[in-house]
Amino acid sequence: MARLEAVVARLEKALAERDEMLADSRARIVELEKLLEESRRSGKRQAAPFRRRDEPIDEPRRPGRKSGEAHGRHGHRLALPEADRTLDAPLPGCCPDCGGEIEHERDAEQFQTDLPLLPPPSTTRFKVAVGRCRSCGKRIQGRHPEQTSDALGAAGAQIGPNAKAWAAWLHYSLGVPFAKISRLFAERMGLTVTAGAICASAQSTSTALVPVHGEIRRRVNNSAVVAADETGWRIGGASAWVWVATTEEVTYYNVAHGRGFDQATEVIDEDFTGTIVRDGWAPYRQYDQATHQTCLAHLCRRADELISDLPAWARGTPREIRDILGQALDARDLDPDGRRHVIDDLTERIELLGEQAHPHDENRKFVKHLLVEKDALFTFLADPAVDATSWRAEHAVRPTTATRKVCGGNRTDRGATTQGRMMTLFRTATQQSIDAVDYLVNLARAPDPAAVAFFT
């Protein structure tokens, strides 16, 4: 009896040690999975996406195209039909090698396209007539069409509309910091202006853009299909978000402190009844009056990641999901009846996946997400005008990501408001084939900014 009790005690001790070891192993697995996910995300969001982390190759391949016919299509710069000037390049008086006489054979042509020399900045003095009405005593002041302000006295020396417009384009469209714009103007254009003055002029322009900004938002919300996305931002060093809603014709940006449904409704109205193409972020599902299309590219990438990361016994589920999504994308070329049949078939397969047992946690989470998004998976098959992915919104978000990595965001809420309005203007101007710089010049000179039409 004592011997049996000793054996039982020894076995219980061994089981306890094994349970402890399994618990440590599970905790370690969770930790490693978290590190793997963070590593994958950092690879997508690194500050320098071109940076290589592996060791350099001892004997790298020779850079550039292959010589001869093997390098593909031969391209060259097309010569302009008319040149602004023609210069002669005559032969030397004698051969530079032997001193012999040179016989002229033919004349060849070479074209060179260059930037013009920058003219010095011009200063305009406005002689502003000031008077007073003899009847009511009201002070009256004249205004020239090229003036951008009625300010006189200490505020009478200002930056012109062209400089303001170019500075806004460089900063909000190309992401050049205000300090570098100030340096560019001073060193290459001869215009001395501080970074603070450029920032202040952008904020005054932002105020004039309120009517256009509101009209673009109205057009977004009146569209049948809108692609939406959001990305990280900074306001005063704190976390914030840039929200974007875009269509084929217009794009609307808004910088907000949060990433919830309240912030989403600042871009897309709560009662929006069109179709929203978006990723799987939960707040978008609260648009209960809208039709939804979740981005299949995100789901396909997730399936590929699970196929690569999971053990062999758990790869069946992501492979089946990848097959379902692939069949849905292939069905876009079918006729309407064929697409409806595919929707019913693939929806049933998704539901069957939800009824099956999935031992691996990642597979369970993935299938659960698909069931939540079930009604938004195949909208693009029912309506060909809807994209299967949110590529349009991701393209609109990409410039803001580059700007954030260069400038770091905004310092104040007012700056964030200006950021949203300016990005909205420049992105929409590109879509509308409008010269945004020319528009800003006219806007600065107009006594009533609302009278300057943006849309034709």
Gap from first CA to last CA: 99 Å
The order of strands across the largest sheet is 5-4-3-6-7
Helicity, as a percent range: 40-55%
Strand content: 5-15%
Question: How would you portray this structure in words?
Answer:
- With 456 residues, this protein is an alpha/beta fold.
- It has a domain at 296-389.
- The chain contains 14 helices and seven strands.
- The chain has helices at 2-45, 161-173, 178-188, 195-208, 210-221, 261-264, 296-309, 316-330, 336-355, 361-372, 379-382, 391-407, 413-431, 436-445; strands spanning 130-132, 139-141, 225-235, 238-246, 251-256, 275-278, 291-294.
- The strands form two sheets. It has a five-stranded mixed β-sheet with strand order 5-4-3-6-7. It has a two-stranded antiparallel sheet with strand order 1-2.
- Mean pLDDT is 88; it is low at 46-51.
Task: Using brief descriptors, characterize the structure shown.
single chain; alpha/beta; five-stranded mixed beta sheet; two-stranded antiparallel sheet; 14 helices; extended
